[in-house]
Write a structure and sequence with these properties.
121 residues; 21% strand; alpha+beta; Alpha-Beta Plaits; four-stranded antiparallel sheet; single chain
Length: 121
């Protein structure tokens, strides 16, 4: 199983409320649903970082930067199926729409994206 993981930071000028409104918004969720269908994903998981004192203390304990605001995970069956999926014109178009929708909200420079291999243990 291959996972695309996007650790997301909102733009500095975006309030927590506005970010969460975007995250739960119909436009974002509709595009993710369409992406899931077109790309044949196994699963999409959206996680918001809790706005609690315990998270602030975790960062302070190690002198770390603020936590990410959210994490998006998209699961694919295998690495061999991933490249053909990303070459599909429908998937490229949806990816471009997602990028355009996210641009006013997400700090792309501070966010991180990567693929991982998931093994059940």
């Amino acid at each position: 199983m291959i996972r695309f993981i996007h650790c997301i930071k909102s733009r500095p000028e975006i309030s927590l409320e506005k970010f969460r409104e975007f995250w739960h918004g119909a436009a974002f969720n509709q595009l993710l649903s369409e992406m899931s269908v077109q790309a044949g994903t196994r699963r999409i998981s959206k996680n918001l970082t809790l706005n609690v004192d315990a998270n602030s203390r975790l960062q302070e304990d190690r002198g770390a930067e603020d936590a990410y605001d959210a994490i998006l995970e998209i699961w694919f069956d295998s690495a061999t199926t991933l490249l053909p999926i990303t070459e599909k014109s429908e998937v490229k178009q949806l990816f471009n729409q997602l990028e355009k929708l996210q641009q006013p909200i997400i700090d792309f420079h501070s966010s991180k994206r990567f693929f991982t291999e998931w093994n059940e243990s």
